[in-house]
């Protein structure tokens, strides 16, 4: 029988090998991937169109545990958003090293687009303008990805021996062990963010009402 | 004269070489650094105590442009925080690849601790408890580092050809070119976050006032 001329390759196998490389080194290149899989670089192109497609496969892996709540127009918008963001963070916490690689590429994966669609639908229904919907989604993205990095950070964010002032020392002394501390900070941040958005929405709606009242269309 | 036995090394030169490696590959190892500098790994230890110290030197570089406002107790706390966070983001935007490496290590650099001290002092003075001060600082860290990654992200966050729903399509259509879009989203996020924190602070103060009023110490 002899050895087959090249091992069995698949897009999933290539994505798994790329994830291993990113997890250990923060990056991957096509030649590294080929070496790891024991094949020539050109044989990878029988299964994937190139680096961009591999990045999207990694994004699908990172988002694979994002679980979207069923779309319920009767539910308060902030509850729906909170559910989505908790799930989004929980999925990315597993792959912190992947985050800068994914943010450096335009999104084109089904799981990701489905989630962004759910955020946009919920925000639009809550009364945010399209421009504020884009801004709010960007804010959520920044917060969730930063929180996923924070969850992967060391148990003690500051060196014990570090020379800090009394206010920072008092704050640090309240820190509970990880992962509780990271989860607690995420829930606090989520509450602050949703409260700020709701407040912003109310003020903005009031402002645009004023605009209409004070300057009625002629 | 001949060639000296090893090139002139310094902690700064080692940090610069490590930054080059992180910028191109997302990581650095001591053997890679030594190879790049044309010295043996052991000779690096004449200048730095090890990997941890190099990471802190990279953090100092990343924070080198953080400019703290002078401490003014009469100024609204949210303005002071906003100035600090704008400067923090501006400094990190230059080194997005460094972010996961830095978040994976406990902070022990002077620039960083000075900034966290300024945040803690301002929040404590504004009436946040030590526990909420820690939570608020964590939220700010997550938001700023996520925003720095967003600023380094591609001009079009979503593939043009991607199949998206009408609400997301309408939101995306409002996107201005980069870097204006990223800066605009950061300012929106900053305003939302500070409004949410202020609202939280007011409610929390009211709640603890209620607690005191309803349950006076016996």
Mean pLDDT of chain A: 87
Q: What is the quaternary state of this protein?
A: homodimer
Approximately what portion of the residues of chain A adopt beta-strand conformation?
under 5%
Taking all Cα atoms into account, the compactness measure Rg of chain A is 22 Å
Largest interchain contact: A-B, 76 and 77 residues
User: Class of the largest domain in chain A in CATH?
Assistant: Mainly Alpha
Query: How many helices of chain A does DSSP assign?
Result: 10
The CATH architecture term of the largest domain in chain A is Orthogonal Bundle
Number of separate structural domains of chain A: 2
Structure commentary:
- The first copy, chain A, has helices at residues 11-25, 30-37, 41-44, 51-63, 77-92, 99-103, 110-125, 130-151, 166-173, 180-214.
- The first copy, chain A, contains ten helices and no strands.
- Chain A is mainly alpha-helical.
- Mean pLDDT of chain A is 87; it is low at 214-218.
- In chain A, helix 5 runs parallel beside helix 8 (130-151) and helix 8 (130-151) packs antiparallel against helix 10.
- Chain A has two domains: 11-48, Arc Repressor Mutant, subunit A, CATH 1.10.10; 65-214, Tetracycline Repressor, domain 2, CATH 1.10.357.
- Helix content of chain A is 65%, strand content 0%.
- Chains A and B meet through helix 6, helix 7, helix 8, helix 9 and helix 10 of A and helix 6, helix 7, helix 8, helix 9 and helix 10 of B.
């Amino acid at each position: 029988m002899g050895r087959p001329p090249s091992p069995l390759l698949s897009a999933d196998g290539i994505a798994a090998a790329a994830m291993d490389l990113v997890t250990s080194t923060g990056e991957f290149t096509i030649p590294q991937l080929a070496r790891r899989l024991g094949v020539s670089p050109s044989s990878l192109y029988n299964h994937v169109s190139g680096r961009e497609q591999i990045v999207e496969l990694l994004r699908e892996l990172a988002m694979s545990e994002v679980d979207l709540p069923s779309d319920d127009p009767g539910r308060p918008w902030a509850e729906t958003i909170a559910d989505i963001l908790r799930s989004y963070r929980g999925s990315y916490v597993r792959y912190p090293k992947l985050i800068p690689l994914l943010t450096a590429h335009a999104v084109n994966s089904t799981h990701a687009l489905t989630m962004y669609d759910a955020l946009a639908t919920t925000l639009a229904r809550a009364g945010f303008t399209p421009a504020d919907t884009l801004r709010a989604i960007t804010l959520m993205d920044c917060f969730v990805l930063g929180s996923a990095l924070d969850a992967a950070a060391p148990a003690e964010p500051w060196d014990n021996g570090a020379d800090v002032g009394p206010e920072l020392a008092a704050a640090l002394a309240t820190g509970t062990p990880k992962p509780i501390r990271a989860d607690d900070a995420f829930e606090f941040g989520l509450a602050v963010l949703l409260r700020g958005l709701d407040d912003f929405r109310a003020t903005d709606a009031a402002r645009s009402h004023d605009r209409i009242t004070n300057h009625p269309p002629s």
